[in-house]
Specification:
Low-confidence stretches: 82-91
Oligomer: single chain
Number of helices: 4
Strand content: under 5%
Order of helices and strands: HHHH
Largest sheet: none
Length: 111
């Protein structure tokens, strides 16, 4: 093997070749069991790593969506304004329901 590890099967063959060489040096009695245990532990480690990466990617997606939403609110505060943010002194072109105007006037007069 020339050490080319550009594809998954190549990496697997490379690792197996190296591990087989090490196992032969250990002992014939323990070699096969040791190799199987090492492969099993490596698979567990890789699966745990992939699960953590998936979790991190999901968190990044959520954070990016939250960031976009907040930036949108900063850029266009009038779009995110709710009824409590409206005031009576708004421009004449605003389409504010009559009941909200009356409520705002009552709140202003109560102050």
């Amino acid at each position: 093997m020339n050490g080319d590890t550009s594809t998954h099967p190549d990496r697997e063959a490379y690792l197996e070749e190296k591990l087989n060489g090490l196992v032969e040096q250990v002992d014939e009695g323990y070699g096969k069991a040791l190799l199987e245990q090492m492969i099993h532990r490596m698979e567990i480690t890789v699966n745990d790593f992939l699960a953590e990466i998936d979790l991190l990617v999901e968190r990044l997606k959520h954070n990016a969506a939250t960031q976009e939403e907040l930036l949108g609110r900063i850029k266009h505060p009038d779009r995110a304004a709710g009824p409590s943010d409206l005031s009576v002194e708004g421009s004449a072109g605003e389409d504010i329901p009559e009941w909200e105007r009356r409520l705002a006037e009552l709140e202003e007069s109560a102050k």
